[in-house]
Specification:
InterPro entries: His_Pase_superF_clade-1, His_PPase_superfam, PGM_Phosphatase. One of its GO terms (cellular component) is cytoplasm. The active site is at 9 (tele-phosphohistidine intermediate), 85 (proton donor/acceptor). GO terms for molecular function: phosphatase activity. By secondary structure, the chain is an alpha/beta fold. The protein has a single domain (2-206), classed as Phosphoglycerate mutase-like (Rossmann fold, 3-Layer(aba) Sandwich), CATH 3.40.50.1240. It contains seven helices and six strands; from the N terminus they run βααβαβαααβαββ. Helix 4 packs across helix 5 (104-112). The protein is globular. The protein starts with a strand and ends in a 5-residue tail after the last strand.
């Protein structure tokens, strides 16, 4: 069975400040995140991962670089826009609290009811759109490297919705799992066209 590892980027200044940080914006990693990414690399180094697929956003690129700095083997990193974070339109960079207070229904559906979430008024991305591109990137990588276990480095909502969708969870339930921590590791197994969830939001390596 092919093993697919998924890491969320390290915590950023906007994460700490509770600001909306989606596919069109970035902020620097915090100093602790630099160390956490290296710890993640130490945890993953013995798997012999040679193909890394990552979001091209700065926070993911830097996290991927720090992870692979701990590897002994040769590897290649590939970047794809399909793995960018969820697009929040005009809410990008804004306060999460402001969104919750001024548009409570929209914010509730974002966090709790993906099937009811409608971002059309502020030019955001829908959950089905996000899942389609995230799934496309994963399937494409499997087709390119069928004999390799793979490491993906990206974003919280992209991983949450895409991974749970691939294992068969309904759209309305995709936000029901615990949120992915920064530099956490999740894992899917893949064989004969089917995915299984082997691990979710593992953080023991950060202690």
């Amino acid at each position: 069975m092919q093993r697919l590892f998924f890491v969320r980027h390290g915590m950023t200044e906007y994460n700490l400040a509770d600001r909306v940080q989606g596919g069109d914006i970035d902020s620097p990693l915090l100093p602790q995140s630099l160390e956490d990414a290296k710890k993640t690399g130490i945890c993953l180094k013995d798997y012999g991962l040679q193909q890394i697929i990552a979001s091209p956003q700065k926070r993911a690129v830097e996290t991927a670089h720090l992870i692979t700095s701990q590897f002994d083997q040769d590897f290649t990193t590939h970047y794809t826009d399909d793995l960018k974070e969820f697009g929040y339109g005009s809410w990008e960079g804004s306060s999460i609290l402001l969104w919750r207070e001024t548009s409570p229904d929209s914010f509730y559906n974002l966090r709790n009811r993906p099937d009811l979430y409608d971002p059309s008024k502020f030019g955001g991305e829908t959950y089905p759109e996000l899942i389609a591109r995230g799934s496309r990137a994963i399937h494409r990588s499997i087709e390119q490297f069928p004999e390799n276990d793979l490491l993906f480095v990206g974003h919280s909502i992209t991983w949450t919705t895409t991974l749970l969708s691939l294992v068969g969870m309904d759209l309305k339930d995709l936000r029901s799992q615990e949120p992915l921590a920064n530099t956490s590791i999740s894992e899917l197994g893949y064989a004969k066209g089917k995915f299984i969830l082997n691990a979710w939001n593992q953080t023991d390596h950060l202690r």
